[in-house]
Amino acid sequence: MDTDASFRKVVMTKGLLWLGDVDDKVHQMAVWVTEHHLERLPCQLEEKALHGSYNLCRIVVFDNGEKWIIRLPLLGRTSQAHCDEKVASEVATLKLLRERTNIPVPEVKAWGLANENPLDLGPFIMQEFIQGEDLGDILEDPADEHSSLMNVRVDDETVKAIYRHVAQFMLQIFKLDFEEIGGLPIGSPDRRRPLTLAAHEIIRLGGVNVLGSRSEKLLTTKEFFDYIVDQQWQQLHEQLNSADDEEDAREKYIFVRVLKSLTSRYTWPDYNEGPFKLICDDFGPRNMRVKDWKITGVIDQEFSYAGPAQLLATAPWWLLLERPHMWDFSSEMEDRFFRHLDMFQGVLEEEEDAMPGHEGRELSMLIKRSREDGTMWFIMVLQGFFQSPDNFPCTQLIRHTPGWNGLVKGIPEEEIQAFVAKKMKHTRLHSKREEETLATYNDKLLKGLIDPNAFFQMVEGPYERGDVLDD
């Protein structure tokens, strides 16, 4: 499934405007940071800005040599409506991990919501700077511009050493239990349902608000699974370009329709009502820093929440760095994935034997269970976004779900045909809207003939008002 080109233009434009605002105020940042230092020490900003997937970062150096990093959600890359929620959740996660684990996460020095930022640049986190290189950059192939997969030249011993470090972190995280599912901090009266990475991306690049009310409570694993599948169902129905043609619409409808019927089958009864675990959708080597092949820092704990244990007790999505929903299915990729999963499981079992409190090998046994009963493919599909039934996890789920073809046959043909007809209408409407949007962008916005907010409203307004299908 493709993202929406019109929303990509909105994302890019918002980001450029916000970065311009940052540049205009960068000379005020040092004084602002000094106000948050316990000793009010003067500081200077390092010249280079760091651009992450969702944040703009600036390193500051105090007169005593101490280093902090300022993290600001990059507007456009982060949904404006969810910036505060993302930052508050990340701060709560970092504090929890520092208090109850020895995972090397940075210390939060100061933070605030958008209305607490005197520079009017949105919510912020000021935290200690952790030395080291980006582990993801080291592991991927610099010569391959079209893939962020792990470099095939990385030898097995290096991979195992990295997996060993991450396994140690996962075992500590697995020991953190929660009584309810929800966004962090747990117990906040206005923050109940999780802000997942997948939902955030669907909103940001597809225009469909799949999150619903913050006050929505999810009491069981089954309810969480239903909630996530319903988001994919909603995106399929409401994103105008969710299908390319009639055949694509048919295949996607059938897949998600069957997926909706599988939540009970893939819910483990013994973990349905908890305990729930800390889930970070962006946890992995790309958000780790390393020095001499030792992980010195685990950073960027955004999109974290208390969720079903099954999300943690499964094959990690990051085994090959890139998210599996981005892969086309092939026997070569299948062999590579399973080889790395075997390596990880072996290392995890060794770490369980060595770490007190894990003698029962609960986590590795649950990952083995997830692999044997096919649950890991179901989890991968739930964690994907903008995906198609022919990608790697979807293909695997179809192959490993007994009776899949029978479930497909149970869908009334007239139901499928009605959906296909609706999506073809959506496709025509989307083509017309996209042509108008891109013409406005090129002929008016870039020439300064229209206010950017008017352009944003042109793209986002129909989805926000609920009249996206009005022609």
Automatic annotation (TrEMBL):
Residues 66-309 form the Aminoglycoside phosphotransferase domain. InterPro entries: AGP_Transferase (IPR051678), Aminoglycoside_PTrfase (IPR002575), Kinase-like_dom_sf (IPR011009). Transmembrane segments: none annotated. It comes from the Eukaryota. This is Phosphotransferase enzyme family protein.
